[in-house]
Amino acid sequence: MEFQVSARKWRPQKFSELIGQEPIVRTLTNAIRSGRISHSYLFSGTRGVGKTTAARIFAKALNCAGGPTPEPCDQCEFCVEIREGRNVDVLEIDGASNTGVADVRDIIENIRYATAACRYKVYIIDEVHMLSRSAFNALLKTLEEPPPKVVFLFATTEQHKIPETILSRCQRFEFKPLSQRQMVRQMEAICKHEGIQIDQASLEEIAKTGAGSMRDAQSLLDQVVAFSGREVTSGAVEAALGIVGQKVLERFVDGVAQRDAGALLEQVQEIVANGKDLHFFCRDLIEYFRNLLVVKACKKPELLINVYVCNLDALKRQAKSFHPDELHQMFRVLSRVETEMRFSSLPQAAFEMAVLRLTDVRPFRDIDGLLEKINRLENSGPASAPPDPTGSTRMASGAHRGQSEPGHSAPGRPPAREDIELKKNPSVAGETSAEGSAPGGIPGFPDWERIQREIYEKKPRFSVFLAQSRLLELNPNAACIELSDPYTLALIGKEENLAAIRAAIEAVCHFAPEVKLAVKSSTATALHDRQNANPPRSPFDKGGREDPPFNKGGLGGFPVSAPEANSEEKSVPGDYNKPASKSETEIIQDALDIFGGIVIR
Ligand SMILES: [Zn+2]
Fold this sequence. Notes:
alpha/beta; Zinc Finger, Delta Prime, domain 3; 5 domains; 26 helices; elongated; binds zinc ion
């Protein structure tokens, strides 16, 4: 027997077989049952969701020998003729190839004659939005006052292209895309009947690629069966559809977790080289991150995740590597590039840039926490506290935490200055980590980020504190973390917190050192002091530097954000306590510099 594609072979012949459009079926069958048949119907919706099929079933329902009936028999002469497309009273016209006014005039001419044998004369016009404007105008009059027993059934994928005057004369039905589950169920039935062996995961993949269109999904199924025969494996589905498998996705997300930009880009190249579709890959990746978020947010993620396709254990493992903020941001980055890729002439480049962006995503700072911290610092009187001339190093470990004295040395001291000091004198930072640990914290300790993430798992609020901290030392004996200020030290230096940090280090590095905390300013300054025998510098100790907060040489008088090499010129926050000392003339001159203009009075 001649091969017939699934979409035709399995085309529904009764309303009860039409899946996914229950409200429409109900309205149409009720109309038939009560004899309230309109003159014109418009079926709109995406391709392959059953519009033309519904129109044909409707034509059969009207003309069935035992009808009009909501369930046509599909056996009588009329039903068979309509099914085979050779009934003279049911005309199916392709709007895409009969667009002109002459074609419509033919229809109108023909309409006046009575039916040959059927009860109703039915005109099914597919892709009706393709008709020209004059063709639509020619139809208007007929649609308004059609002869009795004539029914127009229009089908379109683009309803917005149809003139309002036509729309208002039709009963309109919006066909919905099919859900993945509905499509899988239908394909299962087809495969069972055809003797095709296919696993659930493969069906899910096909349904996903079908994107709501049953006809697309059935065509894909045919394609997969043509590729691999009657025993379909998931590998065959991936190869035939140009999608990547879960293993590749898993490996990619592992790369994102490790922030390994090089490996990720290599993987993208590999996917392209293997002839896979980057759009599909991006779409699958979006879904993957959605699943990671679901795993992170829900107690029973298996209810919300397609477990046939996904590896839940891998998702649970990977979800631990990310902060929820990061997952949200990554999801957004991918969603945006998915749209961009559709319009880009260089979709691969766009995707690669997005991949690089993924490796750079960090959790948001906790704004409430930051505000609270700023308020406390302000309340503790920043300007009044003199800089600590000796700059004694204060360390707090689990044992000595009681001795730490928060607020002892200028808590309001702006941190920017220390950064400047350290950058200007790399030797200072080098001395700080004399025992072989690298300066700058993170570069020397690739595990530090993972440790931080591990800590955030248990103590989400630590993200604020640790974001401003540096790891000075990490070995099996000791882990020394430098914090930004004494307030943070007081908050973190509790035994339970130190234990949590120790546990996080153990989870990542497999050793549990003693955790020591230090405060940034005093440590750096003290060492600086001892090594160089220079007097400590503070933002308030100007030492001949006379940068007003509004640098007149800068861009329109705004503070210049100087490059690091020029950091001496950077206006530090502490300087903002100074404007009171400016003379009135200076203030006016500043205003003129910023806003322009002249002094009138
Ligand atoms: Zn019939």
